[in-house]
């Protein structure tokens, strides 16, 4: 495995994540897309860490990235819950009382 | 400096953490919710932090093995963040929107955001920059949705987190590319290495992609076009104190990180690279102010109007960031200070009117001058200062920003900004017209406590005084950022680019 292979995978993951966020009409799927984006970043950091810097800096950043993704998911899910209580739907298209 | 030695310079942040913990533990006590004692504990913690900031001072080395750096620049932004947080706590005591049963969480999250802002202003490492940005963002999502059983608040936090999560993910991707390109996570070392990298045509595209990706996250934080979509909805739906906080403190911290990353990190490539970064940033700045002002024109909701006005002000502030030099940073710091007072003042009037009149619409402000003269006159002062009319501080701030841009020969940008200020006069004056010249059916005078009048004056006085005293305050800012200029970075870049 060369560095490029890891980068290809991470670019694919990132694009899939952005695609999911843009096209999905369900808040949970959007959250999954966000997780894909964050994981592609972590993969990048770990790959660069082992191929380029050859120290643990990148792996450390990836660890923090995982923790932050978990924190963000927790808040995201609780916001989805409150959205569901207010709108009885988790479709972003239907939560549109604010506009203009 | 290693971690143990660093702790003695880290006392302000430790006090902030302590305050957040104390507020949430105090909340568990049985009769803590009967009065505003939690808010006063939080205010006490902030006062202690302010003392600690000036007592610990600024070490010459960076702390925690290059993770954060305490210098005049970061202290300046910390004070801005603290003042904004303290004012927000006072606003929250006044506000009738918030549920008294969740006070403890509310104040501790507010203080956690404050901690994130401290780190944003002082981080010199990619990891720290990202962590602090996320601390601010994740806590802000919760604050925006803090009103339980309120559709608009839930929707605001929902839109905020969708945009925020994608923007910060994109930024992290950009940071990972930057890490891979340069092999280091330290922002100033990245600056030095980039100078060498940009010479190589093969890596130019990669550098550009990485910089644009990082710009996404930072642009989202300061609500710059085209990453601004969240901000009108979030500002309208969130509780008013939170809106005031986000529009001032969050933006200030975003600019602090923006300056750190772009000035220390990417600033080196601005002069060397073939890609014209100055042009890119100027276009973003011009678009941001034009969009903000044009979108504000038809607004009827004052909160939403102020949201668009705050997007426009991001555009003005970006004019300073475009320059990537000391004059630009000084202009940003000066304008942010003025913006802190005038914008928080305007939001304070919105809170008082919302409490008494029960309306956030411009129609609720009709004939305010005879119902509450002090309130109407103060609001007029804030709004005219936001336009940038003399003899108010907003004029001095804009004057300095415009002259800084002129020095770099960005004439078209200054023309756009001046035209925008003229456009902005229209929508601010609509509120003033409603307050002074329109008649309302309800003529009952509004009453305010002595403390509120005093607080209102605390915003009015700097808004006027900073116009008269702009020269001494500008000199204070010059002294503050004197040690910010990265002499060693410039040298490093020179040595790297000399190598074959």
Task: Provide structural commentary.
The complex is a heterodimer of chains A (100) and B (500). By secondary structure, chain A is mainly alpha-helical. Chain A has one domain (3-89): Helix Hairpins (Orthogonal Bundle). Chain A is built from three helices and no strands. The model of chain A has no long low-confidence stretch (mean pLDDT 92). By secondary structure, chain B is an all-alpha fold. Chain B has a domain at 276-468. Helix content of chain B is 77%, strand content 0%. Chain B is globular and about 70 Å long. Chain B starts with a helix and ends with a helix. Mean pLDDT of chain B is 88; it is low at 487-500. Classes of the chains: A mainly alpha (100), B mainly alpha (500).
**How far apart are the termini of chain A?**
51 Å
Shape type of chain A: elongated
The proportion of residues forming helix of chain A, as a percent range, comes to over 70%
Number of strands of chain A: 0
Structural class of chain B: mainly alpha
Helix percent band of chain B:
over 70%
Shape of chain B: globular
Helix/strand-derived class of chain A?
mainly alpha
Oligomer: heterodimer
What's the mean pLDDT score of chain B?
88
Name of the top-level CATH class of chain A: Mainly Alpha
- Rounded to an integer, what's the Rg of chain A over CA atoms? 17 Å
N-end to C-end Cα span of chain B: 33 Å
How many structural domains does the protein architecture of chain A include?
A: 1
Examine the coordinates and then state which fold CATH places here, giving the name of the CATH topology of chain A.
Answer: Helix Hairpins
Q: How can the largest sheet of chain A be summarized? A: none
CATH architectural label of chain A: Orthogonal Bundle
Unreliable sequence segments of chain A: none
Could you tell me the strand content of chain A as a percent range? under 5%
Major beta-sheet overview of chain B: none
């Amino acid at each position: 495995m060369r560095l490029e292979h890891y980068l290809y995978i991470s670019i694919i993951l990132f694009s899939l994540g952005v695609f999911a966020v843009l096209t999905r009409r369900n808040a949970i799927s959007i959250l999954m897309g966000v997780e894909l984006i964050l994981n592609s970043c972590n993969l990048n950091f770990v790959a660069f860490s082992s191929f380029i810097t050859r120290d643990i800096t990148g792996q450390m950043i990836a660890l923090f990235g995982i923790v932050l993704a978990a924190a963000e998911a927790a808040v995201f899910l609780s916001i989805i819950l409150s959205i569901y209580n207010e709108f009885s739907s988790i479709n972003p298209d239907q939560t549109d009382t604010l506009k203009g | 400096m290693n971690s143990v030695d660093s702790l003695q310079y880290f006392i302000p942040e430790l006090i902030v953490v302590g305050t957040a913990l104390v507020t949430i533990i105090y909340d568990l006590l049985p009769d803590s919710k009967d009065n505003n004692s939690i808010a006063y504990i939080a205010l006490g913690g902030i006062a202690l932090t302010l003392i600690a900031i000036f007592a610990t001072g600024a070490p010459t080395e960076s702390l925690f093995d290059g993770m954060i750096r305490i210098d005049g620049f970061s202290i300046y932004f910390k004070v801005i963040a603290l003042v904004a947080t303290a004012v927000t706590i006072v606003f929250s005591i006044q506000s009738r929107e918030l549920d008294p049963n969740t006070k403890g969480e509310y104040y501790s999250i507010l203080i956690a955001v404050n901690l994130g802002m401290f780190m944003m202003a002082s981080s010199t490492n990619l990891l720290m920059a990202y962590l602090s940005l996320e601390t601010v963002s994740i806590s802000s999502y919760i604050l925006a949705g803090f009103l339980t059983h309120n559709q608009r608040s839930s929707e605001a936090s929902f839109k905020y987190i969708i945009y925020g999560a994608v923007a910060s993910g994109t930024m992290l991707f950009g940071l990972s590319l930057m890490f891979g390109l340069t092999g280091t996570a330290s922002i100033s070392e990245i600056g030095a290495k980039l100078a060498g990298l940009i010479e190589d045509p093969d890596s130019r595209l990669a550098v550009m992609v990485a910089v644009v990706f990082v710009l996404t996250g930072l642009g989202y934080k300061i609500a710059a076009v085209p990453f601004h979509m969240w901000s009108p909805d979030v500002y309208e739906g969130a509780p008013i104190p939170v809106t005031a906080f986000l529009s001032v403190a969050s933006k200030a911290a975003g600019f602090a990180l923006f300056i750190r990353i772009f000035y220390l990190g990417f600033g080196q490539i601005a002069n060397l690279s073939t890609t014209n970064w100055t042009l890119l940033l100027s276009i973003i700045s011009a678009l941001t102010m034009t969009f903000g002002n044009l979108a504000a024109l038809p607004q009827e909701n004052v909160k939403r109007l102020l949201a668009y006005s705050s997007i426009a002000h991001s555009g003005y502030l970006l004019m300073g960031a475009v320059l990537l030099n000391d004059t630009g940073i000084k202009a940003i710091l000066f304008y942010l200070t003025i913006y802190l007072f005038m914008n928080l003042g305007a939001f304070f009037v919105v809170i008082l009117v919302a409490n008494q009149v029960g309306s956030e619409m411009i129609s609720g402000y009709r004939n305010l001058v005879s119902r509450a003269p002090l309130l109407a006159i103060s609001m007029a002062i804030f709004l005219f200062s936001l336009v940038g009319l003399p003899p108010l501080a907003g004029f001095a701030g804009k004057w300095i920003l415009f002259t800084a841009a002129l020095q770099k020969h960005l004439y078209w940008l200054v023309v756009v900004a001046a035209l925008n200020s003229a456009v902005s006069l229209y929508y601010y004056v609509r509120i003033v017209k409603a307050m002074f010249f329109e008649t309302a059916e309800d003529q009952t005078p509004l009453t305010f406590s002595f403390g509120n009048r005093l607080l209102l004056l605390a915003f009015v006085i700097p808004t006027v005084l900073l116009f008269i005293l702009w020269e001494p305050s500008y000199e204070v800012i010059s002294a503050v950022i004197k040690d910010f200029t990265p002499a060693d970075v410039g040298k490093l870049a020179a040595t790297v680019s000399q190598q074959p």
